[in-house]
Amino acid sequence: MPQIWMTYDELAALNGCSAAEARMQALHLSLDRRKSRDGNTRVKLNLVLMARFFETVREAQFDLDGAITALRDAHRQMSGAVPAGQPGLGRGVA
After folding, report:
1. Radius of gyration of the chain (CA)
2. Residue 94: is its pLDDT beyond 60?
3. Which of 4, 25, 43, 53 has a beta carbon 3.0–4.6 Å from 31's, enabling a disulfide?
4. What's the CA gap between 49 and 33, in Å, rounded?
């Protein structure tokens, strides 16, 4: 089972409410909460909230395949696996 953790702002966007209301919902639902290294508190979504999150992802109108391709290309470039003959992103090159 996947775990999805969201900040109160992200949970508010998912539920269409304010961050303060999202915090109250998290308390009411007894969702697990943790302070992240970035200083934000995150809550772990329960099954109902995860289903809502996945539904919003399914309904989103963006090019997921294109985004995955772009991420793979960026990973290849960052790992140094840039094909020969293609300009790299070398440091210190003017």
Report:
1. 19
2. no
3. 43
4. 15
